[in-house]
Amino acid sequence: MAAGAPVGAGGTSHIYQGSGWKLLAPSWIIIGIFLLAPVVMMAVYSFLTKEFRGGVIWEFSLDAYDQFFFDRGLFGDEPPTLEWTYIGIFWRSIWQAGLATITCLLIGFPTAWFIATRNPESRSIWLFLVTIPYWVNLLIRTVSMKFLIRDTGPLNEFLLALHVIEEPLGLINTNFAVQLGLFYSYLPFMVLPIYAAVERYDFSLSEAAADLYAGTWTILWLVILPVVRPGIIAGCILVFVPSLGAFLAPDLLGGAKTFMIGSLIEEQFKGNAGNWPFGAAASMILLTIVMCVLLVYARNQNKAEVR
Amino acid sequence: MRKLLASTAVALLALTAGAHAEGKLSIYHWFEYIPQELLDKFAEEYDVEVTMDTFDSNEALLASLKAGKLGSYDVAVPGDYMVKIMRDEGMLDTFEASELPNFGNIEDRWVDVEFDPGRKSSIPYQWGSTSFSVNKVLYKGELDSLSLIFDAPEELKGKINVLDTAGETLTLASLYLGIPQCTSDREHLKELNALVQKAKADWASFGSDVAKDVLVSGDAAAGMIWSGFSAKARSEGANIEYVFPKEGMIVWMDNVVLLKDAPNRENALKFMNFLLEPENAAAVTNYAQYTAGVKGVGEFLKPEVANSPESNPPADQKGVFVEACPQDVQVLYDAIWTNLKK
């Protein structure tokens, strides 16, 4: 994430030279056990035969991927056509996560800018305020949001009492409520990396640009954005990825009326379906999408550094 | 480093030794279904340390046990059809009636049940029904039909919560259509698919654990719900009536089962016997507001629980148990459910 500052090759102090692998061993063991092993397991399971009511039979099968991509009708005997159901669910989740990311960016950037431009003592207070909601569990925060915006909740009661509205707003169980939940849950993930980038920004650059007759927007686009861009991209990834798999907000605020990626996968393991290979296959496809997003980011980063 | 490892190993051994010590009981139970005082009472009477985890659907229970939790719990509380599934999967241990001194307290009609003939692995916990409740302020019409959920009147449109479990929701829909459960008849299944697709437009939300809450808060004006959960909603201030539909309702019984590889089999049997004590069965009923399948609970019941409208259906009320479908049929119901939520 760190822009500029070349630390890489040759920058490491020679004291640690040669002992690198020993120092890294704990990290590799943790990553190996808790990250790689589950992913490999998931990949293997996605190619196995499903056992009725959960579990797998150790026989190779492409059924899970076939179910994801091909539609053979309700009774499974029609000629296969492209299955839109799951692509639709994925598309809805990507769209929701993308919108939440944009909202977080539009609100988060000015917020981060505001904090980074305060004097150093009050900055820590502002940052502290941003992180306070994180002391409370995500589930509890989402439920509280539900209490606030429900038709009989304080928001509607207040507006009704003031006669601003005549009918409750009907916010609960809508896409808007889901967006609100995602936005509220992940905003700090956007603010903090952008703050870190803006804090390092040399404000004399803006002055210099202004001296050269650059307008406000030109300064923002051509001077500030290129410098804080890594922070923005990091923030976008940190908001987009968890939003993509979120199921608390869609379930509690959106009324669980439609599957999101997260709830679709959950249903395969916990629901009636009990189709583990399909759940694993859906997870693998989700993982692939996220990997692609991150690869595009990494490539852009490399290009930026080369320049 | 080696010393550190050795001492850690010793500490771990000590811990596992502790875990195998006498006097433990591990329960896997539904949420909000047993009063803490009753667990404390058992713990004290038998000097047993009780731990409990909870689940929110029969399918979640099965999934968790399949994913490797079998062997870490002593008893669980599956519903009727899930007892049969777990028995078929070989997840249950058996006991002799003589191992439970209170076995004779089981009501006669609940001894030779289809899902566990002769009660070899389970005892009754509570039984009740699944139907729906309607807010009497918002809807003044007749309360007698599942059409209020599946073909909603104007007043209830967009204010209905349905249970987020395929089994119960699709079974009630089948009752409304008058088609059998676990059918492979294509016309029936198409009809079922079309019904729920159309009805969904009038539904506000899917939720099981929130079924009571949405009625109390007023988020929903009508909602599918379990009988005792509806009684609780009523006692928490919801102005609702539990409906006994003319098309029929779901009847279910939850059962305490002895799990295979139970680490504390002796204590599990003590606990099952304890729950067959009329006073203790009544304590559960007073809390959960369903009905115990145990003789002699009457004198221990709170009058408002014993006489609750939810637990006293009209004599001619039709009720069915949810059936466990065979695999080739279950996939069709799964497809309808996924299709509904896509």
TrEMBL record, chain A:
In the bilayer, the protein is annotated as:
Multi-pass membrane protein
For this chain, the family text in UniProt reads: Belongs to the binding-protein-dependent transport system permease family. CysTW subfamily.
Alphabetically ordered keywords of this record: Cell membrane, Membrane, Transmembrane, Transmembrane helix, Transport
Question: Which InterPro entries does the protein's record reference?
Answer: MetI-like (IPR000515), MetI-like_sf (IPR035906)
The compartments listed are: Cell membrane
Which Pfam families does the record match to this protein?
A: BPD_transp_1 (PF00528)
Return the PANTHER family for the record. Answer: INNER MEMBRANE ABC TRANSPORTER PERMEASE PROTEIN YDCU-RELATED (PTHR42929:SF1), INNER MEMBRANE ABC TRANSPORTER PERMEASE PROTEIN YDCU-RELATED-RELATED (PTHR42929)
Q: Return the protein name.
A: ABC putrescine transporter, inner membrane subunit
Q: Where does the protein principally reside?
A: membrane
Q: Which organism is it from?
A: Roseibium aggregatum (strain ATCC 25650 / DSM 13394 / JCM 20685 / NBRC 16684 / NCIMB 2208 / IAM 12614 / B1)
Listed under GO biological process in this entry are: transmembrane transport
Give a Gene Ontology cellular component term annotated to this protein.
plasma membrane
Q: Which domain of life is it from?
A: Bacteria
The residue ranges crossing the membrane are 28-48, 94-116, 122-140, 176-198, 276-298
Q: What is the lineage of its organism?
A: Bacteria, Pseudomonadati, Pseudomonadota, Alphaproteobacteria, Hyphomicrobiales
What are the ABC transmembrane type-1 domain coordinates in residue numbering?
A: 90-297
The keyword Transport is assigned to this record: yes
